[in-house]
Design brief:
The complex is a heterodimer.
Chain A lengths: L1 H21 L1 H25 L1 H19 L3 H63 L9 H26 L3 H21 L7
Helix pairs in contact in A: 2-3, 2-4, 3-4, 4-5, 4-6, 5-6
Chain B lengths: L8 E4 L6 H9 L5 H7 L15 E4 L1
Antiparallel strand pairs in B: 1-2
The chains are: A mainly alpha, B alpha+beta.
Chain lengths: 200, 59
């Protein structure tokens, strides 16, 4: 009887160890797959869904610890759910990236237009400001106060345009476009104050 | 290669216009007429000879 009990206990332990060991390869394989699928979009995820990525990384770390502790069953059981989280994160990152790319394309197109117009505007205003600066009298449509405002606004306009081009060059297309719109509006107001009807 | 500046201003010469008169209208100073002449040398040979209908750029 005593021998039988020992035998059963030994057999159960052996079976358990064998069962666990048989899960080793699938567990390792599953973890390798998990890490490889996250690596595929990690760079984008860091940019567009950093918090969600952090949660996935925490889950991966937990499962890697389980793997190190030879808890292969736990790994094999947990991987499917983690895979589904990863798949939905991947989808969400792709959608956010598509939105960001579309916004960037729109900003770049608007920038292309503004960066052609604003320098032409600056050139036209500069020429008139230089000439009026040499005039002994202001033209009838421009009074002294307006002239002083124009000169100040024009200097601001040029500085802000430089800021916008710097922003665009450093990759801040959205901010650059917002600034450029303001600059163009300022230029339009100056042209109006000087009575310079645009040719376009 | 020069492209036309869409923000440049133009004046279409009317009967009785002179460059001095146009300079006074746009700059407030008729003595600045050479500015207009210089900007329109492609169409003007003589600052005293402008014709009605001519389109002059006002720099």
């Amino acid at each position: 009887m005593r021998f039988a009990k020992i035998f059963v206990a030994l057999a159960a332990t052996t079976l358990m160890i064998a069962g666990c060991a048989s899960q080793k390869e699938p567990a390792e394989k599953a973890m390798a797959q998990v890490e490889s699928s996250v690596a595929e979009f990690r760079a984008d995820a860091e940019k567009y869904a950093a918090d969600e990525l952090q949660k996935v990384d925490q889950s991966i770390t937990k499962l890697k610890n389980a793997l190190a502790n030879k808890d292969y069953n736990m790994v094999v059981k947990a991987v499917p759910s983690l895979n589904s989280t990863i798949a939905s994160l991947k989808q969400s990152v792709a959608a956010k990236k598509a939105d960001a790319d579309a916004m960037m394309a729109a900003a770049t197109a608007e920038w292309t237009d503004l960066s052609a117009k604003v320098p032409q505007m600056v050139e036209a205003i500069q020429s008139r400001v230089d000439t009026l600066g040499k005039s002994r009298k202001l033209p009838p449509n421009v009074d002294k106060a307006t002239w002083e405002t124009v000169k100040t606004d024009f200097e601001t306009m040029k500085t802000e345009w430089t800021d916008a081009t710097t922003q665009f060059a450093s990759g801040q297309a959205d901010a650059a476009v917002r600034k450029a719109r303001e600059v163009k509006a300022k230029g339009d107001a100056i042209l109006d104050k000087l009575g310079m009807t645009p040719n376009a | 290669m020069s492209t036309e500046n869409p923000y440049a201003q133009y004046h279409v010469v009317k009967q009785g216009d002179t460059l001095s008169k146009i300079a006074e209208e746009y700059y407030g100073d008729k003595m600045l007429y050479p500015k207009i002449f210089e900007a329109n040398k492609d169409v003007l040979q003589d600052p005293n000879k402008i014709k009605p209908g001519q389109k002059l750029r006002i720099p």
